[in-house]
Amino acid sequence: MLLFIISEVMLFGAFFTAYFFIRVVNGDQWFPVDGAELPKLIAGFNTAVLVSSSFTMHWALEGARNENRNAMRVGLLTTFLLGLTFLTVQVNEYVHLGFAPHDNAQATIFYGLTGLHGAHVFVGLTLLSFATIRAFRGHFSAKEHPRVEVPRHLLALRRHHVDLRVLDGLPPLGPC
């Protein structure tokens, strides 16, 4: 698991390095170009969805640890629905952005970074769907719930990704 997390940090680190390098090189002609503007309100909404999903996942895990099956089920289902909302908003935002990956280097990095993040969310949703189905079938207990924690770790990684963007003063998440 540690090697997986290190590889993820390196992968996103490479994208962020390219993103910031292009930002420095282009100076005043920074992204987006040609009058297109990143929708900050939608990015803020998506950030709120991501942060909320961390809380609902924590709620589900605490429910599993305390033998509260209803809290676990509702927490997992709510987290899944929040993740699905996030991906739906991201796809809708991609359709309406006004630029494409082939337009310039900034757009390529932007779509690469946010698309990779969206792919991670999709994988997390897939794992979360399995955990949710198993929770509704009664497969988890206070002593047997480690597979509920896997999607939780993915959510924690996503949350730290959000924190890094906010600390840099970038819009919270673009469509990622």
How would you portray this structure in words?
- By secondary structure, this protein is an all-alpha fold.
- 76% of the residues lie in helices and 0% in strands.
- The protein has 5 helices and no strands.
- It is elongated and about 55 Å long.
* Distance between the first and last residues' Cα: 24 Å
Helix content, binned percent? over 70%
Percent strand equals: under 5%
Mean pLDDT: 77
Structural class: mainly alpha
> How many DSSP H or I helices?
5
Q: Tell me the overall shape.
A: elongated
Largest sheet: none
Number of strands: 0
Give me the strand/helix succession. HHHHH
Poorly predicted ranges: 158-176
- Rg of Cα set: 18 Å
Notable traits:
disordered C terminus, single chain, elongated, 176 residues, 0% strand, mainly alpha, 5 helices
Task: Summarize the structure in short.
The chain has 176 residues and is mostly helical. The chain contains 5 helices and no strands.
Topology overview:
Layout: H1 2-26, H2 40-65, H3 69-96, H4 105-136, H5 146-167
Helix pairs in contact: 1-4, 2-3, 2-5, 3-4, 4-5
